[in-house]
Amino acid sequence: MEISFGTKAGRRAEPVPADGRDARLSRSLSGTNLERAGDYNLRTVLQAVRLNGDTTRVAIAQQTGLTAPTIANITGRLIDMGLVRNAGRMQGGRGQPALRLQINPDGAFGIGLNIDRDHLTLVTLDLAGQVRSRASREIAFAMPDDVVAFVTEEIDRVIAEGGVDRDRVLGIGVAIPDDLGRICLPHRPAGYDRWTGVDLPALLSVLPWPIHCDNDAAAAALGEAEYGTAFDNPSFFYLLISAGLGGGPVIDRSYHRGANARSGEIGLMPDTTGRPGATVQDTVSLSALLARIEDAGIARPDLDTLAGDDPRMAAVVDGWLADAVRALTAPLVAINCLLDPDAILIGGRLPMPLIERLAEGLTAALDAVPQPSRAAIMPAVMAQDAPAIGAAILPFLDHILPSDSILIQSGRQ
Question: Which of 14-28, 213-227, 294-308 has the lowest mean pLDDT?
Answer without folding.
Answer: 14-28
